[in-house]
Q: What sequence folds into this?
């Protein structure tokens, strides 16, 4: 036995773009702005990747909903995202 472990790890989240709420792995809903603010302060790989994934997924979803560039920028600003 080598003592190695290989495992996949997944985080499931439900993002409500209109009400700016997020639910992570079935936990109670949180405000997206405060959740992203917490993630932004952390320096670990998982937090950074989750932060980026949430932002990218939100932008993609807003585009499929027909949102325009300015609406998307305002939403990102409202949740504390800075480019």
A:
């Amino acid at each position: 036995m080598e003592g190695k472990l290989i495992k996949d790890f997944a985080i499931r989240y439900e993002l409500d773009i209109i009400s700016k709420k997020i639910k992570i792995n079935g936990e109670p809903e949180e405000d997206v702005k405060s959740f992203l603010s917490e993630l932004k302060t952390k320096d670990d790989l998982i937090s950074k990747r989750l932060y980026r994934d949430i932002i990218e997924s939100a932008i993609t979803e807003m585009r499929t909903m027909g949102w325009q560039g300015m609406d998307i920028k305002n939403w990102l600003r409202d949740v504390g995202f800075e480019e």
Observations:
- Residues 32-83 form one domain.
- The longest strand covers residues 13-16.
- The chain has a mean pLDDT of 93.
